[in-house]
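Treating backbone geometry as a discrete language has practical consequences that deserve illustration. No coordinates are needed to read the tokens, only the vocabulary itself. For completeness, the protein is quoted in full, as a sequence line and a line of structure tokens:
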Amino acid sequence: MASRDLQHYYDRNTALFLRIGSSGGGHAIHRGLWAPGVRNGREAAEYVNTLLAERIRAGLPEAPRTLLDLGCGVGGTMFSLARAFPNAGLHGVTISTKQVAIGQELAREQGLQRRCHFTAGDFEQLQLDLRADAIVAIEAFVHASRPERFFATCRGHLAPGGVVLIVDDFLAHPVAPHARGMQRTIDRFREGWRVPGLCTRSAFDAVAETEGFTCVHDRNLSDLIRTRRPRDWLVAAASPMARILGLGQRPFWANVVGGHALTRAIRKDWIRYHMVTLARADPGRRL
């Protein structure tokens, strides 16, 4: 049931995400990062892909031959990594059949259809006949209803010596029983954006280690997110009305309510945006 709801959410919202997003034709659904030197929305959306390519190079002894993107959207990150690693084959998995159709068409338009492949499916139940040198997941882990299944998928599809790179939201700290404002905000984000896997970094590390992975690199990217854009003020104005009218279960309005909650949580430092690199557990390995 949860996977069908998530599929419906993305099938209904993807065209809107691409139309009103700020990636400027970069085909990105993830958030932009406004690092020093970034001049526009397309560069902001591309910046996380640049960071991923850097971490892949740092974590592997040679250029990757196979890359797997879990929660690939319409392929924006895949296309960027295809340019960074011209000899690699890339495989993307998304729960949305509409995203697969869009991604395949975009791959054809860019002449990447032989290198970029899309699969419609639930990454918690994935069984592909491949082993990837690097697995990436941008704003996808939080959608996992059972995080151990996400890591099982990574374990089953990671080549020896490979790395897993996750860029996602994490709770800065557990919600205290008396912190009702924080709890309401976090609940609205979880429900609106369908993110049952939202957890603290320590909880994430605990599950990862139980499933055979260890963190070898972590970077907090929260300061690079803009939360006071004109669209943020529009969402802030629309969100209360959507809740009052009971629209929060409809995909578009769920995104509005959840997006406003996320923006507030980032401003309050209740949620942080991290890039985490994992490797199969090996106490002697450092990147």
User: Anything to note?
Assistant: The longest helix spans residues 2-20. The two ends are 39 Å apart (CA to CA). The chain is about 45% helix and 20% strand. Confidence is low (pLDDT under 50) at residues 283-287.
